[in-house]
Predict the 3D structure of the following.
Amino acid sequence: MSKSLSHLFLPAFGGTALIFAVAISFANRDYGQGRIAALETRIDQVEAHEATARQVAEAEAVRAADLELKIAEVQAAASARVAGTADLTTPAPLVEGTYGIGRPALAEEIAAWDVDILPDGRGLPAGSGDVWTGEEVFAERCASCHGDFAEGVGNWPVLAGGFDTLGDKDPVKTVGSYWPHLSTAWDYISRSMPFGEAGTLTADETYAIVAYILYSNDLVDDDFELSKENFADFEMYNMEGFVIDDRPDAEYAQWRAEPCMEGCKDAVEVTMRTVFLVETPAEGGSNSVMNHSAAEALPSFTADGPSFIPAAAVSPDEEADASSATDSAGSADDAAILFAAGEKVFKRCSACHKVGEGARNGSGPHLNGLLGRTMGSVDGFRYSGVFTAAMDEGRVWDEAALAEFLANPKSYMAGTKMAFSGLRKEADVTAVTEYLRSFVE
Ligand code: HEC
Ligand code: HEC
């Protein structure tokens, strides 16, 4: 049985082995072909890489040549500069041994930045200019904003006058009345004026303009010439008006003392409540003095520029004075009391309006001889359109018109450039009208 079995199985084994052998050799052939294909692809890739690398190298070579050309240009420019034909717009020369950022500044570049002028005249360029030349340049370059006589147009800054006002509540601080050093004027004008066209004045023009501003301030005569040489000799009106800040020595130590936190005062007595002091309405609302004056102090912007001189905020007790004074009208000194009250109210106008002998136009027209005069008629003042129209119509200031105007300027004269919100109290209007009545032309 076993013999017959082996007969049966052996050929079967042999057949299986043959099949295996054939299968392996087929697999071998497949493997060899796959490898060849892979190697061929690889060769293609290497060739492609080489082509790219060649292209990159060529491009680099072109760039290097370009750079070399540029370096040559820069070096040429640098040597031209050394030779004195400086052109500050050409690129900077390369300096070895640095991080490759920046380079030492050229003398010309330092000079272009180093323009500050010190009080003793250091830093001034050579040059000079006289009052007459200054008047011409000023008329052309500055007067449109600062006025022909440096008096300021509309709300643009005033550059002259104000000498007797430095001790006032609302001092008029001008170059003449306030600035302690002439160098500030030269420096400021040369750097920043004319507004919007800064840096366009020559040194001589600047000397001339500064001379003219001094003349407008009555600080020099009309034959005055300002120059680098006599600059430091000039003494400004307010040169002694500033003190060195010695608070670090004089005061700081005091503040550093231990603060008292307990039992510092024997008795405490409440004397007033803020609700009365600043007239804050108990139930809120906008009709308080605080709100009112705060609104008036906001600068307003008109075609003539911003109002740099906001209406002076009045303190509540001054207002109270005005009304209590008029309330008590009826006594013998009526007129005097009313005048005094009006004078106080007028403080709110005085930042812009002047009255009295020799009163000049400020940012508002002078108000001498107001009652009875035609609206918008002060010579040399540039009124807004609505006032010019009122003058053309021949309208005249009487008490009624003035009262209505002062109560609410913007509603009575729609479009006026008077940046003032109005007098709320009738008593104030009456008082200031009486006050103004006393200043005749
Ligand atoms: C377009 C209007 C305009 C022109 C033109 C102009 N300024 Fe001014 N000026 C101004 C304004 C606005 C200020 C205030 C600038 C500020 O406070 O930043 C000013 C400020 C000044 C001040 C400082 C005043 C102060 O007390 O602070 C001086 C000085 C001055 N100008 C001089 C000149 C001179 C000189 C010229 C002509 C070369 C000139 N300005 C041309 C608008 C002008
Ligand atoms: C912020 C500046 C400013 C304040 C504050 C101010 N005014 Fe004026 N006022 C002007 C200007 C500017 C004009 C010219 C108005 C125009 O042309 O539209 C003017 C015009 C006037 C006029 C007309 C003058 C004329 O010639 O026709 C009167 C009157 C007047 N103001 C009275 C007053 C009184 C009174 C006060 C105070 C209660 C006052 N103003 C407060 C700037 C001011």
Observations:
- The pocket of heme C (ligand 2) is lined by residues 307, 309, 311, 348-349, 351-353, 363-365, 367, 370, 375-376, 378, 383-384, 386-387, 406, 416-420, 423, 432 (CB under 6 Å).
- The chain is about 45% helix and 0% strand.
